[in-house]
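User: For a teaching handout, I'd like to show students what a predicted protein-ligand complex looks like in token form. I'll give you the sequence and the SMILES for flavin mononucleotide. Please answer with just the structure.
Assistant: Understood, here is the input followed by the structure.
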Amino acid sequence: MKKTLVVLAHPSIERKSIANKIIMEKIRTIKGVKIKNLYQEYPSFKFNIETEQAALIEAESIIFQFPFYWYGVPGILKEWLDQVFTYSFAFGSTGNKLKGKQFLVSMTIGGPEDAYKAGGYNNFPINDLLKPLQQMANLTGMKFNTPIVSYNMIYVPGVYNKKEEVEQRAKEHAEQLYKYIVGS
Ligand SMILES: Cc1cc2nc3c(=O)[nH]c(=O)nc-3n(C[C@H](O)[C@H](O)[C@H](O)COP(=O)(O)O)c2cc1C
């Protein structure tokens, strides 16, 4: 198993999450996986850049775990990228610290899969919407692995989905991610 760093970006994993909570409960059982809970560690978004960069250097495999928010990553994850993936660290002529690492997006999506297509409610396939992250991996020399995504993960009682079904899908997602990590 590769040395793995899971960067978790969920604003309320303990109180409000269903899907990401179930996924993280499973991932926490894997010995040796380092988990960085951004909202918990940095509620004011003031990152310790040295600590963050050291954790990235140490990892052979980097995973972003997050709920899809406004067609992208939650705000804290974008801010973390902006502050931590600096010139001469992540890119630029000497910025090669991430080169050769494995990178994976593991994401829960509120909407249904068939909304994510040309002419659908959300117009674009999910792979198109993930292109900024794919290009971030390209620029930094990381290998962009096929994302693990699950749809229909929003739960609003009586409106969107049934709780047990969301929980079941989250368990399946967790299983897939677990296998990816232990098999790496
Ligand atoms: C601020 C916010 C923005 C969201 N934006 C999207 C979106 O752009 N597309 C989508 O399909 N779902 C969207 N959702 C739904 C979340 O992706 C969904 O609730 C989440 O993946 C469920 O995971 P959780 O139970 O761990 O919170 C959004 C939810 C919130 C709170």
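For the handout, you might add this sentence: Residues 10, 17-20, 67-71, 108-111, 153-154 surround flavin mononucleotide (CB under 6 Å).
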